[in-house]
Amino acid sequence: MLKLKGSIKISGDKSISHRALIFASLSTGKVKISNLLESDDVMRTLNILKELGIKIVKEKTQWTVYGNGTGGYLQPSQVLDCGNSGTTSRLMMGAVSSNPINCTFIGDNSLSKRSMSRLSIFLEKMGAEIKLTKKDFLPLHINGDINLIPMEHVMQKASAQVKSAIILAALNLRGKTRIIEKRNTRDHTERLMRYLKINFKKKILSKSSTSIELNGPYEIKPRDIIVASDPSSAAFFIVGALIIPKSMITLKNIALNKSRTAFIDVLKKMGGKIKVKKTKTISGEDVGNIQVSYSLLNAIEVKASSSPYLIDEYPILSIAASQAKGVTVMKGLSELRHKESDRIKSITKNLSKIGFKVISKKDDISIKGSNELQVIDQKKIKTYGDHRIAMSFAILSLLYKNKLIIDDESCISISYPDFKKHLKKLSTH
């Protein structure tokens, strides 16, 4: 039987790649970016920046961005196409809103069903003029304004994208902007700002609440950025090694940001043999190596309070749950309904089809797993165009001797174009 062995360097982190490009475009000069993830999503951000007058060139493996300052975006001559990328649409809406330009953002079918009013309400309060389709969706038109009002924003709903978009808008405003998060979210934007020496104040208000204060406008000095490898991409191989007998792998230079590695704690609680060793800090992010070997997993309950930190990993965690002894319950997954697909539906339908007992009640999923491998006939997996569903079931398929046929593998390129290549490198018979 096939097993996973050896070591690979995972592609650059998607969240950090988007932010590296945008911050480089807002700096006052030449920034070289290494290990940028060249996925469809990240290329959408890159191409939109070019449309806004930013010169970006690739030299060998590095990308060079010629920044134009925080108010330096030029009027685009065509619509800005975000494709499938929620990060591109939300972060770029924030970034352009404090520039005196008019932009129209469009997206693909799936992105056009995702809510944009969650962000637009904040930008409109500051004075940006925004027209949304049916008051919530792309296409949307935004009239930016250099004189947006710096103010206090209270975020009731946890969203790193909304927070980052407000930060990007505030960089070009004269005066104080304060963002209060009722529930903490991932902090890639703040880490990159610290690395780029952008002054801001971060205060801990309570165990789960923080405030961020910016006092603009800012001049961002150019500084080269190295993108750490993506922990969410690493998660697929980590679970693969845990569930496929005799597997043992090492993944190097992975971003170990606390807000991104919660899935490792979940897998360790299930009995996963995972060793994490921090090696250094690159461009503001802690990185290290992760060693994983085959383990007999047991079911656990994953609490709702963990959900903001596991949002991208639930699909692959549900694969781990299917191979764990007992019933795994994952609670409070409402946010999963608003991703590339309704992931609660995508997970339950596909696992049920293979023969697992999966129940979804409101925003909770319970999966009855087993350490014993079932014998199955060929099954077709429906990805609903969701890259994480496609990759999760591609990993499970290894265990079932490739009897799971993924209906659309092309969507994988949205976040991890090298997934198949890296999987092949680790797969040995």
Overview of this structure, please?
This protein is α/β, with parallel strands linked by helices and 429 residues long. It folds into two domains: 3-11 and 228-428, Enolpyruvate transferase domain (UDP-n-acetylglucosamine1-carboxyvinyl-transferase, Chain), CATH 3.65.10; 70-219, UDP-n-acetylglucosamine1-carboxyvinyl-transferase, Chain (Alpha-beta prism). Helices cover 30% and strands 28% of the residues. It has twelve helices and 23 strands. It has a five-stranded mixed β-sheet. A four-stranded mixed β-sheet has the order 3-4-2-13, with helices on one face. A hairpin with a 2-residue loop joins strand 19 and strand 20 (364-369). The longest helix is centred in the middle third of the chain and has 13 residues, at 231-243. The chain is globular, with a radius of gyration of 21 Å. It starts with a strand and ends with a strand. The mean pLDDT is 96.
